[in-house]
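Lab manual, section 2.4: Encoding a predicted structure.

Procedure: take the sequence of the chain (432 residues), apply the prediction step described in section 2.3, and record the output as structure tokens. A sample record is shown.
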Amino acid sequence: MKILLVNPPNCGRSIPEEEYGIETIKMIFRGEPLALEVVAGNLDGHDVAIADLKAAPNALEDALDGFEPDLVGFTGVACEANTVLRLAGKVKRRSGALVVVGGHHASCDPDFFNHEAVDYVVVGLGKLSFRELVEALASRTVDAGVAGVAKTHPGGGLKHVPRAYSQADLVDDRPPRYDLVAAHRDRYVMSGVGGKVGFVASAYGCTHRCTFCSIPNMTGGRYLIHRPASVLRDMRLLGDVPVVRLVDANTFGDPENALSLGQTIIDAGLKKAIVADVRAETVTRHPELFRLWKQAGLAVAVIGFEEITDAGLERLNKRSSVAANIEALAILKDLGIRVVGDFIVSPDYTEADFEALERFVAAHAVDLPLPSILTPLPGTPQHRDMQPRITIHDLDYYTFTNAVCRTRMEPRLFYQTYAAMLQRFLKHISHA
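Recorded output:
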């Protein structure tokens, strides 16, 4: 079977720009479509191509005309969902290919894609279930259902066989098909942390249940870990790419495994800078782990600080504290590991709240502060809890730089204050 996997283009709309003429910071990096490379890695025996529309905007049309796929698979997050449907419609008009949609938004809100332009929706991890769908299509047994795959039925409900995710879904022995995007390798960069970067997954899911997070939907709430040898293999496959971004929600969710992985990297003599996500309390409880990971190449740790008060953290079910965040910062700084701090700007922010956030960042010298506006993603507990407050339902605006709930401040002033803070943080990043 000829299979085309599609990464949607940069998309999403901006209220500050459209309504107030305020320029805001765009994405500071453009990474490779690892989810598609991973899926492609388990499609041996088929002719597979990837069209990365973020790197090559006309790649879809070229592939439909030249590659002539039998099946087209899309991935996408919330702000890309409308674009995915539009592109799926284009595929249906221009070819007879089956259309399959997966990724974060499909896993959080599969009903969104119950549309005439879509044939199947992959809910959750797709490396194994997508392969099983392809095999069922080829053997004409798909009507019996594939676990983790929903058949669309516009006008009715999705026909969905739930999947119990396990270690088998990682298909550990099949590496990502990095070769399918080799032509774009120089375009995959991460500003502020080292330029050209390659993506590697060492774990899926998370050990926690923060109210705003869509990650647990991908694995049915489980935390699944790749073997250290497989992670090392993938890092090596990136060749001379100097920076590896471990894209896991929590690389250190199993400290014992993380210790083994760090030692495996050291023993292999791999010389790459590593960027990885970690929870603050993991740093405070296991400082020795991060001393080892500094030797392994950990250059940047990404911490979801989210809030600067314990009450705010409790509302997010973060199961952490401001004191742990501050202590983790100090430990990592002493080790020479830079810290990216993710913060959530509530629509309830006042000017005093913006000022307090800037004071926190300055007082604790967060290397790369990245504040985003609270955006309740469909399928998360936060979205269910905040549903009555949501005023904007058009997913094009779910970019984390728009307030989709009513703001306490006058909207223009809210966005002006937010944009000014981002600009000051950008200068902070450029000199970090």
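Check your result against the sample. The chain has two domains: 2-164, 188-430.
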